[in-house]
């Protein structure tokens, strides 16, 4: 919760905690944006679920699943998807491999929105319950995606006790957004 608050205060953008429920990406917690076109985005998303293959956070969560089980899940997701939501298996598999290597992703926010996200996996003890935290923004919103990714990484580092910073104090990060 402190990490969501910290990132929201630093960026003024929507911050969302995602988890995996079956074959769906689910919104577990969120903080609404305080500025910009995404300001109203998170007012109605709590608990929403979306297929794992339909958003960047889902790709990141899928990356935590070992092969060949992941391939089976991707085939199932594709077979159950509507015609307009189907994907090329090899491209999706390669995208998820990149997520597995980096532990982060940039891409579509999904959930029927015209937003994008920068997301990173949270270090959790239960490998079968992965969590991802994301900062959402409008596609045309002038944000520094690298700085947002850095803000998430720094927030996680501080959350895990890797810094002297007081988790209750937040410094604005104007270059991120």
Please explain how this structure is put together:
With 177 residues, the protein is α+β, with helices and mostly antiparallel strands. The chain has five helices and six strands, in the order H-E-E-E-H-H-H-E-E-E-H. It has a six-stranded antiparallel sheet, with helices on both faces. A hairpin with a 2-residue loop joins strand 1 and strand 2 (24-31). Helix 1 (2-11) runs antiparallel to helix 5. The longest helix has 15 residues, at 145-159. Residues 165-175 have low confidence and may be disordered.
Write a short abstract of this structure:
With 177 residues, this protein is α+β, with helices and mostly antiparallel strands. Helices cover 33% and strands 22% of the residues. The C terminus is likely disordered.
Residue-averaged pLDDT, rounded? 85
**Helix share bin:** 25-40%
Largest sheet: 6 strands, antiparallel
From the helix content, strand content and strand pairing, which structural class follows?
A: alpha+beta
| Radius of gyration over all CA atoms, rounded | 16 Å
| Overall body shape | globular
Show unreliable segments.
165-175
**Major β-sheet strand ordering:** 3-2-1-6-5-4
Beta-strand segment tally: 6
Provide the succession of SSEs: HEEEHHHEEEH
The portion of residues forming beta strands comes to 15-25%
Q: Can you count the helices?
A: 5
User: What is the CA-CA span between the terminal residues?
Assistant: 21 Å
